[in-house]
Specification:
4-stranded mixed β-sheet, 3-stranded antiparallel β-sheet, about 400 residues, globular, alpha+beta, 20 helices
């Protein structure tokens, strides 16, 4: 069987599969599940074209990994064939732990567990199934492999993950400001002391990359309408779980029901492989089917939220640079009371939160620039733009979402 297949990708054109084993991983049911998980959660309610999936993104990131490793080999850096394949495996599977709606329900279905931990557990299970063929890829994914630049290509502030999702999300949302010069950035890659660096002539491309990332966060990932829809979805799942825990009849596919009727911690998840198997059976379609059925449920909270999601009658949202005044919150509660909503139910219909955006967190890790004299500097130091340093400041916005009465113009 010919396993060197080619995908026709709308962003990059033709994408080749680098090895037979990578083809086998793509064909595995664990990976095929990503076809049924949207990349941008509820963003399609804002950008109707944002219908791409984690499957698309993983293939795109793998394609960029091929370009990056080819660039580094071309500059004389030794990369063994085993390392080449392992790096492709690590980036291909980096998001395999995402649950339904990607980040939206990331810490809702499992108690405070991020998708990176789940990706690692799934990679370990695939490693068991393939007699250890993912050992090296797992080391690169975790960052324990001695040649650190491999981990940086998989997970850093300038990794293949970020470069693909900015390009791809920009393409499918139509937000032109998110476009980045991916090919040029990759051509500027080099290695110094086992650290990934960018040649100095690529500084302008990095500046554009950081600005594009900041704009995409405010315009897409943290868009006010997306936040409202995500808040409502989380509240619906929370209410359904509360009712299920009380023993009330709640429709759900069997594997999804496990996560509604039990409080599963990461420790329990690691100890019982049945939880992993159940998690790998659920996707966006399970949640949407539940939302449609729950809209007819006798519980006022659950049915109201679900019906509003289906009809796109979303909560109102207000932003602030500071925590909201108590009197303002009380006025919102009064609005809910006027709608006949009892005080104990207000937390479902009025939700506070905060969104943060930092395009470049230099205190955590660095984007390094290789100057013409061979010295290595942080991008914030190497760039002559004062805005680069400003991009490392975390911008925090507080918000409150609440349900307003429906009108003809809602």
């Amino acid at each position: 069987m010919n396993k060197r297949k080619i995908f026709n990708d709308p962003v990059y054109g033709f994408i080749s599969i680098p090895s037979d084993f990578l083809f086998d991983l793509i064909e595995h049911p664990f990976f095929q599940r990503l076809r049924r998980i949207r990349q941008l959660g509820m963003a399609e309610l804002v950008y109707p074209g944002a219908l791409h999936t984690r499957f698309h993104h993983a293939l795109g990131a793998m394609h960029l990994m091929t370009q990056a490793l080819s660039t580094l080999r071309g500059k004389g850096h030794l990369i063994w064939d085993a390392e080449w394949e392992a790096a492709h495996i690590a980036i291909l599977l980096h998001d395999i732990g995402h649950g339904p709606f990607s980040h939206v329900l990331e810490k809702t279905l499992l108690n405070g567990v991020a998708h990176e931990y789940l990706s690692l557990e799934i990679m370990k299970e695939l490693n068991r199934q393939t007699d250890g063929r993912l050992d090296l890829a797992i080391q690169m994914f975790e960052g324990s492999y001695p040649r650190q630049f491999f981990h940086q290509l998989v997970s850093s502030q300038l990794d293949m993950d970020r470069m693909d999702y900015l390009n791809r999300d920009c393409f499918f949302t139509g937000v032109a400001e998110g476009a980045i010069g991916t090919e040029r950035i990759i051509k500027m890659f080099d290695i110094v002391d086992d650290q990934l660096v960018i040649e100095s002539k690529g500084i302008l491309s990095i500046e554009n990359f950081l600005n594009a990332r900041r704009l995409m966060y405010w315009q897409v990932y943290l868009h006010k309408t997306s936040i409202c829809a995500e808040v409502m979805l989380i509240q619906a799942i929370t209410r359904a779980r509360e009712l299920a825990m009380k023993g009330e009849a709640i429709f759900a596919p069997p594997h999804f029901a496990i996560f509604l009727t039990q409080n599963i911690t990461f420790q329990r998840f690691q100890e019982n492989v049945e939880y992993l198997n159940a998690f790998l059976q659920i996707d966006d379609y399970d949640v949407w089917s539940c939302i449609k059925i729950w809209a007819q449920h006798s519980d006022f909270v659950l049915s109201t939220i679900c019906q509003r999601i289906l009809d796109r009658k979303l909560y109102k949202i207000q932003f602030s640079n500071h925590p909201f005044d108590e009197n303002y919150l009380l006025s919102i509660s009064a609005q809910l009371h006027e709608q006949g909503i009892e005080a104990q139910l207000h937390p479902y219909f009025m939700v506070q939160g905060q969104s943060t955006n930092a395009a470049y967190v230099s205190s955590k890790e660095h984007i390094l620039i290789k100057m013409k004299d061979g010295k290595v500097k942080d991008i914030a130091e190497a760039s002559d733009l004062p805005t680069i340093k400003a991009l490392s400041n975390i911008v925090r916005k507080y918000y409150v979402c609440w349900m307003k009465p429906l009108t003809l113009h809602s």
